[in-house]
Write a structure and sequence with these properties.
The protein is of the alpha/beta class. The chain is built from 13 helices and 18 strands. Bound molecules: inosine-5'-diphosphate (IDP) and calcium ion. The site of inosine-5'-diphosphate (IDP) has 21 residues, from helix 4 and helix 10. Belongs to the GDA1/CD39 NTPase family.
Amino acid sequence: MRKILRNNHGNMKISRIAYPLGLFVCLFIYVAYVKWRWAFASQRIFSITETAVGPRNQQYHEKLVTANRAVFYGIMFDAGSTGTRIHIFQFTQSAKETPTLTHETFKALKPGLSAYADDVDKSTQGIEELLNVAKEEIPFDLWKVTPLVLKATAGLRLLPGEKAQKLLQKVREVFQASPFLVGDDCVSIMNGTDEGVSAWITVNFLTGNLNTPGKNSVGMLDLGGGSTQITFLPKIEVTLQTSPAGYITSFQMFNNTYKLYSYSYLGLGLMSARLAILGGVEGKPDNELVSPCFPSSFNGEWEHAEITYKISGHKAGVHLYELCSQRVSEILQNKVHKTEEVKNLDFYAFSYYYDLAANVGLIDKEKGGSLTVEDFEIAAKYVCRTMEVNPQKNPFICMDLTYISLLLQEFGFPKTKVFKLARKIDDIETSWALGATFHYIDSLNRQQNKVF
Ligand SMILES: O=c1[nH]cnc2c1ncn2[C@@H]1O[C@H](COP(=O)(O)OP(=O)(O)O)[C@@H](O)[C@H]1O
Ligand SMILES: [Ca+2]
């Protein structure tokens, strides 16, 4: 009897220790698992294979796993000024090998988050719709180890701070209720330099320049709706020495340190520039905005940042291109820093550079292509001249092309400079999203190394 009692007493003691111990072991295994997923994610640098253009569903996922390739994902939301986009990146890795970017799923919605500044509750519908794409794409068992991040750009930078924070808080709530891995910093406004640097990482990774020592890097030009970025790796010391404060940035990624020239011009994105050229002010409705970049007989409306403006052409307009380029030059005067070195480097151009060139047939809509500053200028002159007699579907086409051609010259590019325009390289979107995902994974791993 005594023995039994003693045994019972002993069992109770064991279960009192066993319960918290079991809980601790489970927690340890879970944390170790998450750390393991991300540890291999940041070993040296990622590679990309032809499987990037492959089917991606549960069957494909199982095929990779059974082929002894571990699969993991990262989700990046790009909250741009004109739209919100989801990028779902799939990586695979065999034992002891560097991870490979195998696929991207991309979906975009309009308008951008800033359009909901006065009705925050409405912003969640689009975010949830995009999250559903991630749920369909990512196998259920990987949801809780897949990091989910949103970074907002010019649209939210241009909003009053309080309105922007309310929008971000709403998104944070939706993210926290989702089954994915969210950290404290999962939703934020990205600074302009990080935006340029991340896009530079993307394009240099996709062109194979990042992982090949001695290979030249390429520069990156991004023309968004609210801001525009220029980023390149200077090869000559003069550029580093003569650039103003805030234009040179050092960053570390995957054990390498890079010193880049990178600057984001807030307010010089195409939509913000249109407003400036028209003489309007962000957030303030005007009676009517008149511009020499529209044909003299033109009358219409333009919606920008939730305000509808009445727009029209100058009555006495004759040489549209000359008058328009004068006005655009005034707007760009003393705004942009010129560098000599850009003349000698290869550049990729994204976003509205691509869209505009594709719209007027300078490049193939799907495949992209190469063109010069002069091609933009010739197209601008042609469109401005013909739209007087032949009204265009897009009344801004003369203004936009004139703006692009002059902006590129302000950066220091000669008219003969050739640019590459690409929406995708190896079936991956040429956006800052991939570079930012690499950076996020890298920093997550560094944090975890500190914890363990
Ligand atoms: O990932 C992308 N894929 C394709 N086009 C994009 C992507 N990101 C931005 N764009 C294009 O960039 C332009 C607007 O930029 P955005 O809305 O991002 O402004 P912002 O960068 O100034 O915030 C649009 O033409 C949009 O189609
Ligand atoms: Ca953008």
